[in-house]
Input
Amino acid sequence: MTEPTSPLQIPDFRLYWLSRLVSVLATVGMVVIIGYQLYDVARGQYGMSISQSAFLLGLLGLAQFVPLAIFTPVAGLVADRFDRRTVAAAAMSVDLVVALTLAVATQAGQASLPLLFALAALHGTARVFIGPALSAVTPNIVPAPLIPRAMALSSMSWQIGAIGGPALAGLLYGANAALPYWTSSALLVIGIAALLSIRRLPPPEENRGEPPLRQMIEGVRFVWNERFLLGCVTLDLFAVLLGGATALLPVFARDVLQVGAEGLGIMRAAPAVGAVAVSLWLSARPIAHNVGAKMLWAVAAFGAATIVFGVSRNFALSLGMLALLGAADMVSVFVRSTLVQLNTPDAVRGRVSSISMLAISASNELGEMQSGLAAGLLGATGAVVFGGAGAILIVAIWAVLFPELRNARTFAPQYRQTHRQKEPAP
Output
């Protein structure tokens, strides 16, 4: 039988890609509409002021993040102890319940703040379990040589969903307030069916019989002891924590570049457009050499583009920098996610993926808070420039603290080399 030369030649990967695409379309679009609906309900039904309603949007993000912080160790363990395909499908079924409940409540005019907060928290809980399980599926269905291309295609499906989901949901909401939720429900049914059509993926044998608490501790210990993985995960955490500019885009759209709401929509899409373009390139010609150094340079480019965006007063230049920022981040994500998948034994892959997901989510959520605080002290331009410079500084520090990163020539598993080095000489 001829070996596949592309992940898309593998039926299970095509099902996986379809499931990831439609689930992201469904959930990202649903979350955007939940935020809009919560703001609308707070202003209309509860008579809250603009500032009070905006504050509730911050609490909505917190409601989705708290379950992630609480359940991450459990989610990683579940992904390693059970069929990852069914774990992800079960979590997506929870999102299906959220979408159907919102559809019925909105259709009946019964959407309330407590209901919206409760369902947002339930979605956050489902997201905790979907991420590690789905991330750990790819190496089980794709041969190791094709994993870099598979990761690029997987990232592309996420970016397409992240672009198309909010746009589709917004159009549907304008036609009927409940229609985005009904559409999300239908998309999630397709995603669950596609995922369950993948061949069965039994959990690794070595995870059976081990006490759950010990396994959770082993996942954290593995990341901590494997400096290569620790460097990958923490690089993203601190670089995005400092360098995220998206939280301040409304300020730039309204008061700095003066392009209004229409310009804000284009600005929000620009990073994703850059990321999709790079995903297409990497799926055809994946990075194969000097991967660690390229990841570090990509994060540095992310910081530099952030600085130029901060000082720019030209809309076209600002859009270009946002697209470049997204492209650089995509290179970093591609290298890091591929390195993590190939450098993690299958027995702990779910737990390591959950820790990586927690770091990424924490950097996004806490990065928005950091940007807001910095803007209050330095102004919007000062905050963005400070964050971009901070991201570059983090790259320089991490290149020194984690020489394993800059010395990684290929995607070859580093943990095996590390383990061999630890073995005593005969």
